[in-house]
Amino acid sequence: MKAPDRPIVFRDRIDAACQLARRLQAYRGRNPLVLAIPRGAVPMARSLAEALQGDLDVVLVRKLGAPFQSELAIGSVDESGWVYLAPHAAAAGAGADREYIAAEKRRQMDVIRQRRAQYTPVRPPLDPAGRIVIVVDDGLATGATMVAALHGLRQRHPARLVCAVPVSSPEALDMVRPLADEVLCLQAPADFRAVGQFYRDFAQVEDDEVVALLKP
């Protein structure tokens, strides 16, 4: 019996971005628009945009946290206000009713508005229409925020929509595949527990670093 492949453990997010860039060389020089899901993916997207000679921006989406377990995503919301609810949302703890979801959506939309004003204060978001768009995250656990990002971008008519992540849970990968023209995931281990287990350095990315990275 063949031994299972060992999971890739990335040195840090830039190492992961470099490995993604090698697999995305077909888009180099074709002016791709590389969009990061903040905050962790922004350093990765900056590295990818430079490697592929493309433009950098952010796609603003937020997860909707479960009652009493804010880190557990029961869905997500995009910048337009479109909401995705995960199949497990109804069972994600007492209180995840319509009123709770509406209030959680309002809270996360406030964060999205604040981040847009902070991250790109002097320009509108770059237009994805007619362009190769590569959406980057540092990993997918539930996949909820990537679902919202891909859905929102599809409505804006990119020429090609690519999802690029270093690691994903198998369940999240299955969920996002139908939403993109291409999904590049370097690994989706069966024993996935958390994105951070696949990085030696998984330090939090702060807002001031995001602002600096998004400057022209």
TrEMBL record:
It holds the Pfam family Pribosyltran. Gene3D superfamilies: 3.40.50.2020, PRTase-like (3.30.1310.20). Keywords: Glycosyltransferase, Transferase. One of its GO terms (molecular function) is glycosyltransferase activity. Residues 22-201 form the Phosphoribosyltransferase domain. SUPFAM superfamilies: PRTase-like. This is Phosphoribosyltransferase.
